[in-house]
Amino acid sequence: xxxxxxxxxxxxxxxxxxxxxxxxxxxxxxxxxxxxxxxxxxxxxxxxxxxxxxxxxxxxxxxxxxxxxxxxxxxxxxxxxxxxxxxxxxxxxxxxxxxxxxxxxxxxxxxxxxxxxxxxxxxxxxxxxxxxxxxxxxxxxxxxxxxxxxxxxxxxxxxxxxxxxxxxxxxxxxxxxxxxxxxxxxxxxxxxxxxxxxxxxxxxxxxxxxxxxxxxxxxxxxxxxxxxxxxxxxxxxxxxxxxxxxxxxxxxxxxxxxxxxxxxxxxxxxxxxxxxxxxxxxxxxxxxxxxxxxxxxxxxxxxxxxxxxxxxxxxxxxxxxxxxxxxxxxxxxxxxxxxxxxxxxxxxxxxxxxxxxxxxxxxxxxxxxxxxxxxxxxxxxxxxxxxxxxxxxxxxxxxxxxxxxxxxxxxxxxxxxxxxxxxxxxxxxxxxxxxxxxxxxxxxxxxxxxxxxxxxxx
Length: 458
Ligand SMILES: Cc1cc2nc3c(=O)[nH]c(=O)nc-3n(C[C@H](O)[C@H](O)[C@H](O)COP(=O)(O)OP(=O)(O)OC[C@H]3O[C@@H](n4cnc5c(N)ncnc54)[C@H](O)[C@@H]3O)c2cc1C
What we know:
Layout: H1 5-10, E1 11-12, E2 17-18, E3 25-26, E4 30-32, H2 37-50, E5 54-57, E6 72-75, E7 82-86, E8 91-95, H3 100-109, E9 112-113, H4 125-130, E10 147-153, E11 159-163, H5 168-174, E12 183-190, E13 192-193, E14 196-205, H6 206-211, H7 213-217, E15 222-227, E16 233-242, H8 253-270, H9 278-290, E17 294-299, H10 300-304, E18 312-320, H11 324-336, E19 348-353, E20 368-376, H12 386-398, E21 402-403, H13 413-419, H14 423-433, H15 442-448
Parallel strand pairs: 4-6, 5-6
Antiparallel strand pairs: 1-4, 2-3, 7-8, 8-12, 9-13, 10-11, 10-12, 14-16, 14-17, 15-16, 15-19, 18-20, 18-21, 19-20
The chain binds flavin-adenine dinucleotide (FAD).
């Protein structure tokens, strides 16, 4: 490929890309770090000229091969300006590569905040939107649902500005577009006045939660819970807005770092050879770290986020809210009765999200419960997880589950068509905006275009 001077300046030596959990990797032919819109336009033109796949990446935090490419990779980290903060109308406009943690800090300084966040803020804003990243709160939608305007660079139609009033179909499609429609250049997001949250975290038995599920889900603005597999224990985390004095969580070096991180990782490593001891470890860690009630007051974004420890395999699906109890009972029954001799790390995370009208959002047209399972990879070492995934996916599918797009899953195009009413429209739009498929990588070909021979390297 022949690059002009500017492209040479912003391109790097092709280097291996690994996602955060180091489960997937790829070696792009060329690697770019653009600094402005013109740079990105040039890269897309190059991809078109040589018919190469082109992929924008944010923080590379997607746990699947979603961000991978063997073609041109665009790292968006240098395309990260906050363009405008409108304090009166409570909106922010930012370039796509802006990390969510930077946005949180700048918004806080300007008396604003995002309404809801996921467990981390490492993501780029476009990466978070592209996969409908969500937090928890039954009356709170995912991050994409707060976007009010978006600018997309497409292969066939150049730059498209879209919002509810302008190119509404492109807008609804691109708010969760997994990189398939083009490169998101900038987004305008609705915020709210900066706020503090008071959180309460306390233990509760699995059956007590399920027997009171409706009232628990609605008992605070933000509710999530963690089930400790092979035990009856859960912890509930609830948070509501407050004007109380700050009372932040303080880190205890010994407890939070030496025991809960290092010793725990070491024990998980050892138990790769003695997995039947995992139930005991889950119980001990629950007793040590989670059996006490805790209450904190802090700025919203600090409360939403928490330490996700170390790399992990993860699978997460959204099912209709009303199916939560039944689905969790089946999962609990399978894990706790040890039906297939499979041992599971904690936590199984349960969260809730409001419905939206974004075409490929797992919460399209229905309030949902997100259920996520993880298996840690102590010191980046593999652990067995495939049997757990197979059973978990079977349960989720049977409740018309929709997988989190960022996470590895085995849904076929035909299954996705059935569960997403707007799936065919999305594909039609994709073909019109990207007729030569330069934005399609293996993940997208596999799941959106039924090319099941394009396997994930898992
Ligand atoms: C520790 C951890 C915790 C997490 N917690 C949560 C959580 O609480 N809730 C939740 O819902 N998810 C969660 N996730 C998943 C995470 O939010 C998503 O994977 C998110 O997409 C990652 O953002 P990123 O910037 O790393 O995007 P990447 O992984 O780099 O990319 C994701 C997708 O976005 C596309 N993309 C990136 N930038 C652009 C752009 N400018 N234009 C077009 N497409 C683009 C990529 O091509 C790719 O398809 C978590 C992941 C990890 C590793």
